[in-house]
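Memo to structure team: turn this sequence into structure tokens by end of day. - J.P.
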Amino acid sequence: MQAIEFTGMGSRSRLAATVGYVVVIVLITAASIAFAMNRISDSGERPVGAYREIVVQPGDTLWDLARSISPEGADLRRAVFEIRTLNGLTDAEILPGQRLLLPAK
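Reply from structure team:
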């Protein structure tokens, strides 16, 4: 990388160029940190061992399954959404004999 020469520039021009470079470096650093933090927060996925497979029994519903993995008083909609997303379900219909992955408690 070549050094940038400031010859022939006035002191104000030199100062403006230096400030400009510093601002660009700070912005790139901030954007990199924000991107990394976003990737970390988006990877709220559980490790592979954090799931268990179940076989749907007659009478089971997604809401029952969500209740079985959620803490007392938790919003079951979140657990239902997680089960549907994890298993690629487009609706809440599940059938006896169907194998589903559930987040471990």
